[in-house]
Amino acid sequence: MNYAYFLVYFVFHMLLLHRLTNDVLFGVTEAMLISIFVYMRFMMTIEATLPNHSVQNCARCQKMTPQHYVHCDKCGRCMSVERTHYDFVEACVEPSLFTRFIYMARIMVALNIVCCCVYILVSPFAGTALVAVHIYVLKSTYISVPRNIYVH
Ligand SMILES: [Zn+2]
Ligand SMILES: [Zn+2]
After folding, report:
1. Which of 14, 43, 86, 110 has CA atoms 20 to 30 A from the CA of 32?
2. Residue 151 domain-assigned?
């Protein structure tokens, strides 16, 4: 599971539950949370430009880069050493920002679980199936990543 799958899963669940229950409030809440989710993904990848930095030459991307930058093979570009490559977002991001992002994803899945627990009262079979899917998705967010940008 990565970011793209999560986005499809959230949007699909929003549309599905809106269709099943005709609940506008849930749809609006979920749409707002999805926009925050996308916004956080975008904000993580922004890089600060540091002026007057000493530079080095990166042999792989054939470019002059700041000295505290290392090359990431998966992204194919140089990144600040404070960053770590995460396959979940397919980018090098700061670990603290990624932790916030993954908590946000978990909160959204938890909200889906709560909504489907209520939906069990209406339709026991479909509700239970949805809760099972959400628990599987929630479990897949617990991934261990080595705190390292070097990928060889
Ligand atoms: Zn490079
Ligand atoms: Zn990377």
Report:
1. 86
2. no
